[in-house]
Amino acid sequence: MEMEQGYFLVSGFAQTPKGTPVNEMYKHIGAILLIDRTTNCIIKSDFSVVSSLTKEVLQDLIQGFCVNEPFENLANKLKHHINIPSLGAILQAIKSAIDRYKDTALNTKT
After folding, report:
1. Which of 42, 51, 69, 81 is deepest in the core (most CB within 10 A)?
2. Nearest 5°: CA angle at 77, between 40 and 55?
3. Does the structural domain 7-107 have CATH classification 3.90.1010.10?
């Protein structure tokens, strides 16, 4: 993948729900987002989840989301398509990554 200066990689984490397979494996869920600094939109993403299908669906749904939009728009979109025990933790990890992006990349554009 050819990287340009206009991209920013950021991550966020959240504690997993007890009694779920993801909790047995990871204890925390990570959301790693590659964001285009010009558009503030998510280009690619990765998630520390057990199922490759879950990861693939999350990646498809989150790609193109612009972090300038209200987070509730993305949360509602994910809730409309996904009903798994770890969804709350996934949303928290994504929100944490977006908040980190806003706190750092938006304040240090070069």
Report:
1. 42
2. 80
3. yes
Phi, psi of 70 (to 5 degrees): -60, 135
From first to last of its 110 residues, the chain has per-residue pLDDT tens of: 555 678 999 999 998 878 776 666 767 789 999 999 999 999 999 999 888 999 999 999 999 999 999 999 999 999 999 999 889 999 999 999 999 999 997 776 55
User: Structure pTM?
Assistant: 0.88
**Residue 43 and residue 59: Cα distance in Å, rounded?**
10
Burial class (CB in 10 A: 0-12, 13-18, 19+), 3: exposed
What are 53's two structure tokens?
A: 């299908």
